[in-house]
Structure formats: C-alpha cells, structure tokens
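Project outcomes to date are best conveyed with an example. Our students and postdoctoral researchers have been running inverse folding experiments weekly, and each run begins with a structure described purely in tokens. The record below, which covers 139 residues, was selected by the lab manager from last quarter's runs and is presented without edits.
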C-alpha cells in the first residue's frame, strides 16, 4: 500500500477514537444503550428458557429428552450472566464517579500488566541441570 492510503487509514482510526471530531457518546450514554441491549438479550434468554422447559415437558418418553436439559442449562447460564451485567450497568448509571474510578483502576492494572509482560522476556530459563533422559518404552 502507498503511504497516502496508510495515512488516511490512520487518520480515520484516530478520528473515530477522538470524541471531539467523531461526536462520541459519553460513558453514561454508552451504558444507557448497553442497558437496552442487555434487556433485549434478557428477553431472548427468557424465551429460550421457556421453550426449553416446554420441549422437556413434551418429550416425556423420548430418548432426546436430555438435549432439552442442555438448553435449560444454557438458558439459566445466560440469564444469570445477563442479570449480573444488568446489575453492573445499573450501578454504573447511578454512580458515575465510581465508574470512572473503576475504569481508571482497570486501565492502570492493564498498563502495569503489559509492562510486566513486556519486560519479562518470555523465555523460561532452566532452573537446574537437565535430568536423565526418560527410559525407552517397551511394547
């Protein structure tokens, strides 16, 4: 690619990340949209759970009845995760100062983790002399 195309791609990515040029949402608005999407997915998870219970009830003597138990487990797992996410979203919407503190702490920990990972080298050094070779396999 030419330098002009690469520079235009970098400019487009930077303008998408800068709130002043891209008119980006605030975090409170973002969590408002997230609240709507979580509510929609919560409704879909309830429909999945209800359908799985109906399938389980109607397949009383069938050998495929256990498949509906898998659907019930997935439905309950999705419901639990979405309720936890909905609780976190509601908390962040009502306490924006705490939201900024938690996001700042997470970003700080990620930066520290990346620095530690970058300076760790990546190679594992042997602790002591290598041991004897393993015995041959007899068949």
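After processing, the design step wrote out the following sequence:
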């Amino acid at each position: 690619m030419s330098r002009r195309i690469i520079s235009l791609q970098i400019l487009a990515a930077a303008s998408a990340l800068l709130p002043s040029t891209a008119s980006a949402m605030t975090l409170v608005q973002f969590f408002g949209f997230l609240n709507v999407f979580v509510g929609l997915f919560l409704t879909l998870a309830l429909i999945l759970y209800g359908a799985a219970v109906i399938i389980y009830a109607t397949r009383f003597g069938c050998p495929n009845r256990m498949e509906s138990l898998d659907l019930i487990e997935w439905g309950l797992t999705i419901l639990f995760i979405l309720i936890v996410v909905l609780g976190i979203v509601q908390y962040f919407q009502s306490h924006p100062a705490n939201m900024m503190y938690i996001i700042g702490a997470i970003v700080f920990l990620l930066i520290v983790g990346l620095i530690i990972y970058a300076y760790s080298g990546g190679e594992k050094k042997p602790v002591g002399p290598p041991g004897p070779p393993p015995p041959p396999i007899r068949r």
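Residues 33-94 form one domain. Helices lie at 3-17, 19-22, 27-58, 65-94, 96-119. The training component of this project remains on track.
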